Amino acid sequence: xxxxxxxxxxxxxxxxxxxxxxxxxxxxxxxxxxxxxxxxxxxxxxxxxxxxxxxxxxxxxxxxxxxxxxxxxxxxxxxxxxxxxxxxxxxxxxxxxxxxxxxxxxxxxxxxxxxxxxxxxxxxxxxxxxxxxxxxxxxxxxxxxxxxxxxxxxx
Length: 155
Fold this sequence. Notes:
This is Biogenesis of lysosome-related organelles complex 1 subunit 5. Keywords: Coiled coil. Helices cover about 80% and strands about 0% of the residues. The chain is an all-alpha fold.
């Protein structure tokens, strides 16, 4: 038997997966896919948020437009009311002038009317008093009673 050199048992070398070009490419491709998916999700979120903000911006612009139209309507109403107020103030000034002229012209006549009313009141009170006295004289002298007076009585 010949003596051959005996080699000690050694395990076969296992390749490092990172050294294998196929595995390395597969891992690299998978990492890129994951990164692309992550980027895609981020971009989807960003684009969704961007679209949402654009929609909100359009809505706000529409609201601003409507508010501007409302302001214009109110301004038109205010302008009409200001014109009406000016017309009414002119009319009021004209009427105040007329009233002051009327008071100046009619004032003496009104005072005379009040004096006449006072004289009539005095005369009326005197007539009432005399009527009361004469009625009492009819009752005392002739037995007249106003409750029992008939239409055909001559007293």
